[in-house]
TrEMBL record:
The keyword Chaperone applies. InterPro entries: DMSO/NO3_reduct_chaperone, TorD-like_sf, TorD/DmsD_chaperones. The keyword Chaperone applies. This is Molecular chaperone.
Length: 205
């Protein structure tokens, strides 16, 4: 599960980053499965050394999972992100970048994704600017086998163009929503993780 990349030294940094992106993708794409919810509830929250990065926000996310049953989390997901018509909170980058869905930011994203040799799974109804899709792209750029594509330069470029400009705004929207409990904790963890990512990429510039 996901306690390892946050709180133990057993995984190398790149594997840990990839697994965090995978967790975020899963939790933003849908309410957690039974297995994922159970794993979150029993996840380790005490870091091997005091002051570990993300320790506080990770512990709060685990506490939220422990404090809410699976049905509660599912209802919260639907209340925030689901429903017919306009959702309470959008999970799509175009909304935050342009104020509309399916606009120029999505077209630019599709061009860059195609240049990476990637394509949206036809079974996925959401457009490519969904936060879960972007997290999956980042995971691939970290953990993929093709070093011509999966490398720090590509990660930095994709993050700077398609993640960093809007994801903090989405996190703020979630955290400020009165119905958010589990997803408030997830948004806070996401925001903290993205801050660490941004700092790391800045060091490469």
């Amino acid at each position: 599960m996901m306690q390892a990349p946050i709180l133990t030294p057993t995984l190398d940094e790149e594997t840990a980053r990839a697994e965090v992106y995978g967790l975020l993708a899963a939790l933003y794409y849908a309410a957690p499965s039974v297995g994922l919810h159970e794993n979150l509830k029993v996840a380790v929250t005490e870091a091997p050394a005091p002051g570990a990065l993300l320790e506080t926000s990770w512990a709060e996310l685990v506490a939220a999972a422990r404090g809410l049953d699976l049905a509660d989390v599912g209802r919260e997901y639907d209340a925030l992100f689901g429903g017919v018509g306009k959702p309470e909170v959008y999970l799509f980058g175009s909304h935050y970048l342009s104020g509309f869905l399916n606009e120029k930011p999505l077209a630019a994203l599709r061009t860059d994704i195609a240049a990476l040799g990637l394509a949206r799974d036809e079974a996925m109804p959401e457009t490519e600017d969904h936060v879960a899709y972007l997290c999956e792209v980042m995971r691939y750029l970290i953990a993929g086998d093709d070093v011509a594509i999966a490398n720090l330069t590509r990660q930095r470029e994709f993050f700077a163009r398609h993640v960093q400009p809007w994801l903090p705004l989405m996190c703020e929207a979630v955290m400020q929503h009165p119905k958010a409990r589990f997803y408030r904790a997830l948004a806070a963890f996401t925001q903290a993780f993205m801050s660490v990512e941004a700092q790391g990429f800045d060091m490469l510039a």
